[in-house]
From TrEMBL:
Designated name of the protein: LicD/FKTN/FKRP nucleotidyltransferase domain-containing protein
Recorded GO CC terms: membrane
Ranges annotated as spanning the membrane: 106-126
Membrane topology annotation: Single-pass membrane protein
Length: 835
């Protein structure tokens, strides 16, 4: 008889197989994708020229007429005119490009001819000087890139775009396509305008480009049938109501009926909106526990119709030959009011392909064979930025010079070759005065003088403080994907939740990418952070995260948290690091700062996390918490064991054997008060405490292969939080193999432990021949050996902690496993590509 655990695993395995099969098999034709086309009107062209703008940008493809309230009204492929006009402009405004125009109606031909003639007339005055210069500047000789089959980015619609080539449609969602198209879009803009990224420059955005909403919004008929089979036959005559969900039927089907909080965040629609799949919309987070298929729908619908775009996109490591700097560009929230696809739109893709072929002197067959890859586009982007002098640079040491009125910004590391050295933190990094902060916030000059402050967060700060004044606590801000009957959704952000079926291996690959991007981002911007708690324990043992961890914990200084809020809240980070090879830019990571961050008391416990870095493909996240020194902390907090262990590491033992317990207790309080008076006692909102001295010397190292900082007193800190952890070599069905230097699942390697999970006295470490274990060892053996050697020597200054010394990816990502299977590559061949 199966136990509950095995039944759950079998169910999850079936769901995973079903998802995998859906990824590997053709999808049904989409009939509900909002924004499968881009809707324009003829007067877009007229307005463009009326205001003296003779350039047509891809921004125009998502122009939204404020007077047009039709959600999904199709137009007669009018955006082709915009595309053709754009082609004409970039190709030196030559009339011979009219031959490329395919079948148009008479009125379309009249409009495009008028625009093209106007453009041609304007350019004729400077044709000799401008065209010759631009022709040389806009032709690219791409540097050769060592390319594996997995480097090639999957492009949709190719069979439709090139019907004579006999291509097969590829339906696997490649998360690298929008990062690649974004680079191409920026290149077209910079070339077309000769490097002018003006103050009003911003880019359109659609979550549907970046997140696989098709998978989240696909209705699960199998689940419906299973549900109806278990309930009264009275529901069978209402099956159509369940297929056309509204708030009531959704709640009944997915286990949240009679939940007021859910109903307050769900709104029925009077009419079915063309292109929108259901009869209700989601307006915000709910604490209702929803069955998993419903959770996927809930988050997906919010992304589709309600989720605001990010404030900006941070293109990490696109400057320089090896990524010596980054570019940050603004997102204009109103440029895509209809939330249509932009970078995945068929016509936009065709335009970018045409631009690629023209400006690299390729033919269509060569392009279709090689396709796009991130590394080639990144190097070309760096060349374009340098060639056209996009040099509005800011040092990572001058955060307060960042101004929100700037529409783009380039940042570079200030250290030689990106070398990490021993760092020193002091009291000023942690000082925080909430009263002064609120006084500044209420000042009439606050928002004007601090133009770098995120306007969205600024509004939330005021609203949060007003809420606290009336209710005594802040409203909960960061929500998880609470699931019905299980706690598996607790480590996923509710908006980006993609399913709890994720295997341990793939979860670790997401955490691997999360931590590497976070560390690179912080290092480049001189933000002070270190890996903490269970994640720090994993680092000590082998430089990697613990395989059973559902997330990753990082600590920042209070000064860094305030800078994150001011400069980078709601920033989507795309990591183009060349070190990651074909995994580069494989997802985006959203920085989301809790607007209650300024208050450093625990309150009702719902806002102890100060912010998150969220993987938008899965919803897995990295928790950000800050440490601060606050004036009245000991007066506001209840005396607890965490505090007492800070001044007596053996508190749990001594509290039972103290001869005079009252005197012992009072002595501990006096010691804590002395630490507070000396500006030594720092704390997070969950009352984890440290001393400034413990964090005054930060040593460079690596975590998950990327450069990182850790407190020199790391062993002392870990023993305080987890007294027995450093000597415990078995935990949660895992055993630490000292030869492989990895935590191994005892089910993969049964010869290491007995039936009770106890390690054999002479356990045969280094002999487990499980294929998964062998492949992980191949990927990590050099890295873990270096890590343990560094910890043993302790001579941190002797190592060259430069960007070039970071490791290649150490984990196999789920998407690339699916992609490799599609290409017919074996598991060993896939691992060899990582190596």
């Amino acid at each position: 008889m199966q136990n509950k655990g095995s039944v759950l695993n079998a169910q999850r395995s079936r769901r995973y197989d079903r998802l995998r099969n859906s990824q590997l098999s053709p999808k049904p034709n989409r009939d509900y994708s909002v924004g499968s086309e881009i809707f324009l009107t003829h007067d877009v062209l007229l307005r463009s020229n009326k205001h003296g703008n003779n350039s047509t940008d891809l921004d125009d493809l998502v122009y939204d007429n404020e007077d047009d309230d039709d959600f999904g009204k199709p137009e007669e492929s009018i955006y082709k005119e915009i595309l053709e006009s754009f082609i004409i402009k970039v190709k030196q405004h030559s009339l011979k490009n009219f031959k490329r125009i395919e079948s148009f109606s008479t009125i379309n031909l009249i409009v495009i001819t008028a625009v093209a003639l106007l453009t041609y007339t304007v350019t004729i005055f400077y044709k000799q000087s401008f065209n010759e210069e631009n022709a040389n500047a806009s032709t690219f000789m791409d540097q050769p890139v060592e390319q594996s089959p997995l480097h090639k980015i999957i492009i949709p619609y190719l069979n439709e775009l090139y019907p004579d080539k006999g291509l097969e449609d590829e339906d696997l969602f490649d998360p690298r396509l929008p990062p690649a198209a974004l680079l191409l879009y920026l290149q077209t803009h910079i070339v077309a305008t000769k490097g002018q990224l003006k103050q009003n420059f911003s880019i359109p955005f659609s979550w549907e480009d970046w997140v696989d909403l098709d998978a989240r919004l696909r209705y699960d008929d199998d689940y419906l049938v299973e549900w109806l089979a278990l309930h009264s036959h009275d529901f069978w005559n209402q099956i159509d109501d369940f297929r056309n969900l509204n708030c009531e039927s959704f709640a009944l089907l997915y286990g949240c009926e009679n939940n007021r909080n859910f109903m307050s965040k769900c709104r029925d629609l009077d009419d079915q909106i063309p292109g929108y799949p259901y009869k209700f919309e989601v307006t915000g987070p709910t604490n209702a526990k929803i069955k998993e298929p419903g959770r996927l729908l809930y988050g997906g619908l919010y992304l589709k119709s309600q989720m605001p775009p990010p404030q900006q996109i941070y293109l990490l490591d696109v400057f320089g030959e090896n990524g010596e700097g980054s570019l940050m560009v603004s997102v204009e929230p109103n440029k895509n009011a209809k939330r249509t696809q932009v970078l995945r739109n068929k016509e936009v893709i065709k335009q970018l392909i045409d631009w690629e072929i023209t400006h690299t002197k390729k033919d269509a067959n060569t392009f279709l064979d090689k396709g796009w890859n991130i590394e080639t586009l990144r190097k070309r982007m760096s060349s374009v930025l340098t060639r056209f002098g996009v040099e509005k640079m800011i040092s990572s040491k001058r955060h307060k010079d960042i101004n929100r009125k700037q529409t783009f910004l380039a940042l570079r590391e200030v250290t030689d070759h990106g070398r990490a050295e021993i760092n020193n933190w002091d009291f000023n990094d942690f000082r925080w005065d909430e009263v002064q902060f609120l006084n500044d916030l209420s000042s009439s000059s606050f928002n004007e003088e601090d133009g770098n402050y995120d306007q969205r967060l600024y509004t939330q700060l005021e609203e949060n403080e007003n809420f606290r004044l009336h209710n005594g606590y802040h409203p909960k801000y960061l929500f998880e994907a609470d699931l019905y009957g299980t706690s598996l959704g607790a480590h996923y952000d509710w908006r980006f939740f993609s399913g709890s079926f994720m295997t341990n291996d793939y979860r670790q690959s997401v955490i691997h990418r999360l931590s590497r991007t976070w560390l690179r981002f912080c290092f480049e911007n001189d933000l002070k952070t270190f890996i903490a708690y269970g994640s720090m324990l994993g680092w000590i043992l082998n430089g990697l995260t613990l395989p059973w961890d559902g997330d990753i914990d990082v600590i920042v200084t209070m000064e860094t948290l305030d800078l994150l809020a001011r400069n980078f809240n709601q920033t989507l980070i795309v990591d183009y690091s060349s070190k990651d090879g074909f995994q580069s830019a494989a997802t985006g990571f959203l920085i989301d700062i809790n607007p209650a961050y300024y208050s450093r008391v625990k309150g009702d416990g719902n806002n102890v996390i100060d912010g998150r870095l969220i993987d938008i493909n899965t919803g897995l996240y990295l928790d950000i918490t800050a440490l601060a020194w606050t004036k009245n902390y000991l007066k506001e907090v209840q005396m607890h064991d965490k505090l007492k262990r800070l001044v007596d590491k053996d508190y749990e033992l001594n509290k039972f054997f103290a001869i005079e317990s009252d005197i012992y207790g009072q002595t501990l309080i006096e010691q804590l008060e002395k630490l507070q008076e000396d500006h030594e006692l720092i704390h997070c909102k969950n009352d984890n405490v440290y001393t400034v001295s413990e964090l005054s010397v930060m040593i460079p190292s690596y975590f998950e292969g990327a450069r990182a900082y850790f407190p020199h007193e790391y062993e002392k800190i870990i023993r305080r939080f987890y007294p027995e952890a450093l000597t415990r070599m078995t935990y949660l069905d895992h055993v630490f193999d000292s030869v492989y230097r990895l935590w191994l699942d005892i089910h993969d390697c049964p010869d290491l432990t007995d039936e009770f999970g106890t390690i054999y006295v002479n356990a045969p470490f280094g002999t487990c021949n499980n294929s998964k274990v062998i492949n992980e060892y191949k990927l990590t053996q050099d890295y873990t050996a270096r890590h343990l050697s560094m910890l043993g020597e302790g001579d941190w200054e002797s190592y060259e902690f430069e960007k070039s010394t970071e490791s290649k990816p150490l984990r196999v990502d789920e998407f690339f496993s699916l992609y490799a299977a599609r290409l017919g590559l074996s598991e060993d061949e896939l691992v060899s590509l990582y190596l």
